[in-house]
Design brief:
With about 300 residues, chain A is mostly helical. Chain A has 14 helices and two strands. Chain A has a two-stranded antiparallel ribbon with strand order 1-2. Classes of the chains: A mainly alpha (about 300), B mainly alpha (about 325). Chain A: Pfam families: BPD_transp_1.
Chain lengths: ~300, ~325
């Protein structure tokens, strides 16, 4: 980030040369006008709610009456709340499944596609699910995975003689949701990774080929290390979005059966809008927020995201 | 994120330029390549099949679906599903074909979605563009400090602001209004400002400086020169914002509970809940799903290539 700002400063200085600099005398007033909408939006709908969210997490608040300061009571409740910890485990399981499977499939697809063809049409086709809403994705998959009439179960029944209650059994609920999530995001991640592959110079692979490296060795020793910055970005984006999964859960399982897919966002929504316990819901949001920040920074650290081996 | 240090001089189309020589890739037939093509065919099939299945089910008779669930073609071909989804079949007709009698006022929800996504997209892209100009072209004290503060929002996931923003909209008495749905997202987007500023920094300043020397004011430069030269990334952001807003579910769910302003995505989820649990009207549901996805599919048919390139582009930045 600092580099970006530095660069902006350098360029700006360069452009103030000569007669043009006179024209910049009144820039301050105009700049103020131009950034006002963005700054007001930032203050009113981002900074203020962030501060207020943190404040609300220390209060007892039921929307209709003013918030009452209760100190750490919500946090104590959180520590002893079995449903919260269960939700967290369920969410982590979902994140793990959808991110690991999703990123692996996207990576393999992008690499294979990059070796085979530059066709934008194929990339556009696999991107299709990214354009539709989670609600639409959840609806079509709940139809295809329907226990009696769903095409997946009909085929399964013909092959194995069994059907699977994908959304109706505890063991299958999260994997089924992860399947929808992977299906929906795979194309987007693959297109991002594909763009990263296009930045790797061919000379790297030619050198590898001359040294007698096999296809797989080149993938492991060249492609993956050189792709690291974009892979880290894809992983971080996937983790953040799957931690906040909501729409596909609400349309398919509504958190069931028996809390088996009661992900955090679902539990927060339920606390706030079914039980009107906004203070506690705010506390959980804050906890989720802190976790996401911690995970993001750890991942960036671990992967040394700022360095690309290309430079 | 962190790879964002290169100046945005290139246009989205540059990312398509092959960096590798084609000779190695045109190496004729080999078992490995056949296997690779097979894999890609499989991926494309899994991606596309559900869309076909939506169409196939939407054109079926809901009662007949049970008789031949694996038929690759519509079972008992009828447009009844669409009629129920659009609310133009009578209750008796709907029930005869397995509908619940509940209908979806698709025209109304479609209008709501267009207003919600259209107005929000227009506002946020415009506000981001003028702010990006102030951050990349104008000289003023505190410019980089203000930019750094705004950029913090890139790091913060939306979860923390959702509930307090709902309380704010409720305090303002704006629940169940378009204003309540649109306002929080209409003025500020850290990503948009960052993305456009990067692009503007990469543009040559020569033309702008020539215009300034010719006596054009900065405002004139912004609207006559900088913004037209930024047309490509502006189109990209417009499309991406429109898609995201059209598909948004959570925020409209929080601030609306009334059909008069509900967007289609949300109404569709409600329609699913009104369908009987034991024997849902799958044909009607899939018809409604197809109608909800149609604008995105059309956008895709027209701009598909451009969307692919711009996503790759935004990733590298």
């Amino acid at each position: 980030m600092a580099q970006v700002i530095e660069q902006g400063r350098g360029r700006a200085r360069g452009s103030t040369s000569g007669r043009a600099s006179a024209a910049h005398r009144h820039d301050g007033r105009l700049a103020l006008i131009l950034i006002t909408p963005a700054v007001v939006g930032f203050l009113v709908f981002f900074a203020y709610p962030t501060v207020r969210g943190i404040y609300l997490s220390f209060t007892d608040f039921h929307v209709l009456t003013p918030p009452k300061w209760v100190g750490l009571a919500n946090f104590r409740e959180l520590v002893g709340d079995d449903v919260f910890w269960h939700s967290l485990r369920v969410t982590l399981y979902f994140v793990l499944l959808s991110v690991v499977v999703g990123v692996l499939v996207s990576l393999v697809t992008a690499v294979v596609l990059h070796r085979l063809t530059r066709s934008t049409v194929i990339r556009a086709l696999i991107l299709l699910p990214f354009l539709i809403s989670g609600v639409v994705a959840a609806l079509v998959w709940s139809w295809m995975l329907d226990p009696q009439l769903g095409i997946v179960n009909v085929v399964l029944n013909k092959l194995t003689g069994h059907t699977v209650m994908f959304f109706g059994t505890s063991a299958w609920a999260i994997p089924s949701l992860a399947l929808i999530s992977v299906w929906k995001s795979m194309g987007y991640n693959a297109v991002l990774i594909f763009a990263g592959l296009q930045t790797i110079p061919a000379t790297v692979y030619e050198a590898g080929r001359i040294d007698g490296a096999s296809e797989f060795q080149m993938f492991r020793r060249l492609t993956v290390p050189l792709l690291r910055p974009i892979l880290v970005m894809v992983v971080i984006l996937s983790v953040i979005s799957s931690f906040q999964v909501f729409d596909i859960v609400q349309v398919t399982t509504k958190g069931g059966p028996a809390d088996a897919s009661n992900v955090l966002q679902m539990y927060i929504y339920d606390k706030a809008f079914s039980q009107f316990d906004f203070g506690y819901a705010a506390t959980m949001s804050l906890a989720l927020f802190v976790m996401l920040i911690a995970i993001t920074f750890t991942q960036m650290r671990l992967a040394r995201a700022n360095e690309s081996d290309l430079n | 994120m962190s790879t964002a240090t290169m100046p945005g001089r290139s246009t989205p189309h540059d990312t398509r330029t092959p960096h590798t020589s084609g000779s190695a890739r045109r190496a004729g037939f080999s078992p490995g390549r056949a296997l690779a093509w097979l894999y890609i065919a499989g991926v494309v099939l899994v991606t596309i099949f559900p869309f076909y299945w939506i169409l196939r089910t939407a054109l079926s008779n809901n009662y007949a679906l049970a008789t031949d669930p694996s038929s690759p073609l519509p079972v008992g071909f009828t447009l009844g599903g669409f009629e129920r989804a659009l609310g133009i079949s009578s209750v008796a007709e709907a029930q005869a074909q397995g509908g619940s009698g509940a209908s979806l006022d698709t025209a109304l929800f479609l209008r709501n979605s267009v207003i919600y996504a259209g107005v929000l997209t227009a506002c946020i892209v415009f506000c981001s563009a003028i702010a990006a100009y102030a951050f990349s072209r104008l000289q003023w004290r505190g410019r980089n400090a203000v930019f750094s503060v705004l950029l913090c929002a890139l790091m913060v996931p939306g979860i923390l602001t959702l509930l307090p923003n709902f309380v704010l909209i409720k305090d303002l008495g704006l629940t169940n209004t378009f204003a309540g749905m649109i306002l929080p997202g209409a003025f500020f987007s850290a990503f948009n400002i960052f993305f456009l500023r990067q692009f503007m920094l990469g543009l040559s300043t020569e033309i702008e400086e020539a215009a300034i020397i010719d006596g054009a004011g900065p405002l004139r430069v912004l609207f006559r020169i900088t913004l037209p030269m930024t047309a490509a990334p502006l189109t990209t952001l417009t499309m991406l914002t429109f898609i995201t807003t059209w598909n948004d579910y959570f925020w409209p769910l929080l601030v609306t509970n009334d059909d008069s302003v509900r967007p289609l995505t949300l109404a569709l989820a409600v329609f699913k809940q009104s369908s009987p649990q034991a024997a849902p009207d799958w044909a009607g549901l899939m018809a409604a799903t197809l109608i909800a996805a149609l604008p995105m599919l059309l956008l895709f048919a027209v701009f598909g290539k451009r969307i692919v390139n711009s996503i790759g582009f935004s990733g590298i930045k």
